[in-house]
Structure formats: structure tokens, C-alpha cells
Amino acid sequence: MKLRSFQKMDFVFDALKAGINIIDTTGKIIYVNDVYCKMHSYKKDELIGKTFDMVLPNINGLNHYKQIINREITKPFVVESINMRKGGEKFPVLISWNYLENDGILEGMITVVQDISKLKQYEEALKASEEKLQALIENVSDVVWEINEDYQYTYISRKCYNLFCHPADELVGRSMLDFFFSKEEENSCSLINSLNNREPFTPIEIGQVNCKGQLFFVEVSGVPLYNSENQFIGYRGIYRDITARKKLNEAKEKMKEYEKKLETREYLEYIMGDSLEIKKVHKEVEKVAKTDFSVIIYGETGTGKEIVANAIHDFSNRSNKPMVSIDCGAIPDALMESELFGYNKGAFTGSVETKKGLLEVANGGTVFLDEITNLSYE
């Protein structure tokens, strides 16, 4: 063993900032550099001549070394392991081994040891940061997604289930275009053009269909992604559910129509006709108008049930109060309660202001529930 040649290389080994030790075939340490000693909190004379398992917390270390010496374990010998300082403190290391031979005769092993404690700390901090970011993504109300160059989902946050009725793992690999309500619709075409041209896009309203066949609406935004070689690899973006907001806006428009009718009183004021049946209707109108009873008006579509309702109102002592006509067939079941009874600000997503219900609007007046048979029993 040409130990002196290694001793002459001390300054080179120390400059590498790595611990170097040389072990003979029995597992005894015959050389260590200063970095190795400092790393393990030992002096050189405390290590030289001792078996190297004194720095290993694992008592099988020496047996493992004998397997390497006997060539029962083949190269390369690069492993992450745990070493132990003089005081018993354990720390992570990266160890690389190689045989030392002299004229074909095996004389031992040389090992290079690097303390990777800080690297492990960085890895743990990065992992914690990634977990924190992932938790943040999974808990925001918007759905975060990524697609590849073929527009297939490579990632989508768990909140996607609220929209698609599919868990995230079932959507990965599916094309985002598969769920578009219509690829021919103007906004859909605009989004597809942006994707094909690899352009970023600001919120675009898109109708999509979930696994139950239900239509929902989202605002979708996205930016193209490129790798380190500036190659296009896909998009990252978000979906924001605007279904409730869209329904609310539609309800507001309907409410405006009702309010306009109240303001302009665009009603036919007379039931025209001179037949016996029409005269009978006149008498019935006059009779019920004097009461506060609920009235059912029968008749086929287009026969003038709303005209009769307006006549009853005009002949009643409520004629100076509002007359509100509600088309029950035009209002979704999910919105019927809020339409009739109103809602407070913040009662649900998108309710940015308190709104009176139609029953409150018609307070003291008359409410005509047109197509009431279309109401759900629920």
C-alpha cells in the first residue's frame, strides 16, 4: 500500500471539501484526511488503526464491507447512508467506494464521503413548500389544471369533481375539448384558436357538460408552457365556476321584465267578446274579484288566462297595488325559491346584493302563477 503517496495528496483531498478514508482488507482505517476527521468530530489518531464501523450507527456495516471486499457486491458503490459523529450524532452522507489494488493484488478500499445534511434540509424544505403549495391549490375555489401539447389533462386539482362529477385521476389523460358543450360556439372557437396559436387567453366563458349530462359554465384562463429548451409543452390555467352567477344574471333579467310590466302596466284591460260564455266569464271575474280567495283559472295555452287574471286584479280592491305575473315554466326549480322569496346579500355564491322576492314585490297586490302545473312537487 503506497500510503505515503496519499498523504502527499492531503491538500488536494481537503480542497475537494470531501472526507477521504482508506480501509485495508480487514476493515481497519489506515488513512483519513482532515475533512473526514472534522466531519466526524474525531482526531486522526483516534481513527487510524480502528475499524471503520465506529463511525457507522449500523452494526452490519463491517459485514457489508466484507461482502464488497470479497466482490460479492459489484460496482458501482455509490450510496446514501447515515454516519455517526464522535458524540453519537447521526447525519446523512453520500459515499462512493472503489478498490485499491497494487500489481493486481487487492489491498483495500478508498471511500469518498460527503456530508449532505444541508442538501437534505433543502430537500425537506422544498418538499414542505411543495406540499403547502399543493394544499393551497387543492383548497382554492377555482380549479387549477395543466394540459399537454395535445390538450390532454396532465394535472387537475381535486375541486374538479364539483364541476365534472369525475375525480381528478379519471380526467388525467382526457382532452379538455371532450367536455365542451359546443366546439362551434363563438367563445369555444376563440379558445381553440388561442390554444392552436399557443397564445395566452384571459377569462373566456365556456359551457361544458359533466358526466351526468348537466351543463355548467366556467371562465377559463390559461398561459402556454415551455421547457428549458423553449419547446412548447402545454398550458396551465384555471376554471372558475360561474354557473350560479350566470343563472342569477338571467334571474335578474327576468326580474327586470316583471318590474317593467309593473311600471308600464302593459295589460289588456278588457275581456273582449259578446258570447254567452264570455259574459259568464265576466260575471265570474266580478264575483271573485271582490274576495281574497285564491283562484284557479283553467284553459288551454293561448286562451287568455293572464288577461282574466289582470281583469280580476283590476276589478279588485287591490287594483292600486302591483300585479305580478310569474311564468313558472320559465324559472328553473333551483331558482324558484329565490325568485319567489328573494335572497340576502352573501346567501350564496354570486349574490352580491339583497334582492326582493316577487311575492314581496307584489305585497298587497295580486300574484298570477302562470303554468303552475310545471312546478316541481319538491
What does this molecule look like?
This protein is α+β, with helices and mostly antiparallel strands and 378 residues long. The protein folds into 3 domains: 3-120, Beta-Lactamase (2-Layer Sandwich); 140-241, PAS domain (Beta-Lactamase); 245-374, P-loop containing nucleotide triphosphate hydrolases (Rossmann fold). 35% of the residues lie in helices and 25% in strands. The chain has a 5-stranded antiparallel beta sheet. A hairpin with a 5-residue loop joins strand 3 and strand 4. Helix 11 crosses helix 12 (305-315).
How would you sum up this structure in a few lines?
By secondary structure, the chain is of the alpha+beta class.
| Amino-to-carboxy terminus distance | 93 Å
Shape: rod-shaped
The strand line-up of the biggest sheet is 2-1-5-4-3
Secondary-structure class: alpha+beta
What string gives the helices and strands in order? Answer: HHEEHHHEEEHEEHHHEEEHHHEHEEHE
Rg, nearest Å: 40 Å
CATH first level of the largest domain: Alpha Beta
Helix proportion? 25-40%
Number of domains: 3
CATH homologous superfamily heading of the largest domain: P-loop containing nucleotide triphosphate hydrolases
Identify the CATH architecture of the largest domain: 3-Layer(aba) Sandwich
In the predicted model, the low-confidence regions spanning at least 5 consecutive residues are: 264-268
Q: Please give the largest β-sheet.
A: 5 strands, antiparallel
Which assembly state applies to the chains in this document?
A: single chain
* Number of separate helices: 14
